[in-house]
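hey m, so remember when u said the tokens were messed up on ur end? i reran from scratch. heres the input so u can diff it against urs
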Amino acid sequence: MLDDRISEDKSGGKTVFSLMDSWLGKILLAGNDQGLTQVAFQAGKSPLTPKADWRRDDAFWATAVSQLTAYFAGELKQFNLPLAPQGTPFQQQVWAYLQTIPYGRTTTYGTIAAELGNPNASRAVGAANGRNPISVIIPCHRVVGSDGKLTGYAGGLPIKEALLGLERNGRFGTTEQLSLF
């Protein structure tokens, strides 16, 4: 059975995956020869369950695991990995924009919508943000509500808060105030 946090690879490529441990818990990395197609967090006690035809290959994802480990240690601010997220053209546009948000900064759904040329599309931006298949590396955690408050995150708000705290303070913890980018 396909875990609901893990999307199906529609590119036709063979999917390989790896699992890593982090302070966030287990993380699944998956993709193909085009690049990383997803990063998923284990939610609660439910295990991450890759599809039966996926092949585990820890060596294939060693660089990604190394970069994520460095990020979680506060030593890496920008990822350099091949990415191949699968989504609609609008989702792709939003995900590309997310990658321009600087480490340690935040922005709002409305700002992204305006920057993409449609200031009335903040809900659509929120939906695309919520469908981001490559958490952390495509930094959807850097998007907040128009009032600066934390809003939904696939890994849960405590993880979003911890990631923002890491980026703000160089350590894990809570964010006291978010400065908008």
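this time it looks ok to me. The chain has two domains: 1-86, 89-169. if urs says something different then somethings off w ur setup not the seq
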